[in-house]
Input
Amino acid sequence: MTDIHDINRRAWDRRARDGKRFTKPVDPHALVDPLKRVDGLGWLSPPDDVAGKRLLALAAGGGKHAALYAAAGAKVTVVDISDAMLDLDRKVAAERGLDITPLRASMDDLSALGDAIFDVVIHPVSTCYLPETRPVYDEVARVTKAGGVYISQHKQPVSMQADVDPLPGAGAGGGYGLIEPYDRCDALPPVSGSLHREEGTVEFLHTWSALLGAMCAAGFVIEALMEPDHRDAKARPGSFEHRSRWVPPYVRVKARRVAGGVPEKTGPALWTPDE
Ligand SMILES: C[S@@+](CC[C@H](N)C(=O)[O-])C[C@H]1O[C@@H](n2cnc3c(N)ncnc32)[C@H](O)[C@@H]1O
Output
């Protein structure tokens, strides 16, 4: 493990202990109709339904995702770098009798898992915690069966570029400045007071080539894409909901593992000459 892995592991252990955002186990009422909570788009409708399938919840500790998919009938393996996050899954699984196997690992090294064993991979926001996406996608491609579904959510690059506070004097009608270059490869500076980043973690901006191009290069075809809506026209300037009107925070992607081996490791170029 690198320093980056270790800093983020400790940060998420702390966040789980302190009950911070994304560390709240599922409300038991949601387990009655679990897919309503996590699959509003119907991306997991037949033939991609999860009941009886082997599902990997990747970087998804916290007692929420694994519990919901297990309640929907999936045999869930939940991977996370943070033991404190996985403890929340262990607790919910024991309390509710759910089929959940926790595994502490980093999403870019799933060597504890065999080849082509999962029908479905669910991957909540987390590629931002590593400098490269391709090693993660290569591992997801390796453990997913041909024809399997990969649903992931990521932070949009523009959200990592834009300032937390509105432009001076912009008021409710104004916008947010871009303060990070699109090609920033090293760790982003820490921020506080914004819900679009997690304090205490080390995060990286990933370009669209890195988010989507690398996914295709690793052996997936993208079938659907949506941008979760966090806008609120009445929100206070500087709030997450106000900023989300100018700066979409997330993108969600449904992809499918194509048949055949993992392709050659040719990552997508950030920019290619325009013809
Ligand atoms: C935003 S949370 C996602 C799950 C959360 N329960 C939720 O409600 O969305 C991000 C998760 O990624 C995990 N994580 C960070 N770096 C990781 C890595 N390299 N490998 C695996 N998990 C990682 C964190 O421990 C945390 O549980």
About this structure: The chain has one domain: 3-155+196-232+250-257. Helices lie at 3-18, 34-38, 65-71, 83-96, 134-143, 157-161, 208-217, 240-246.
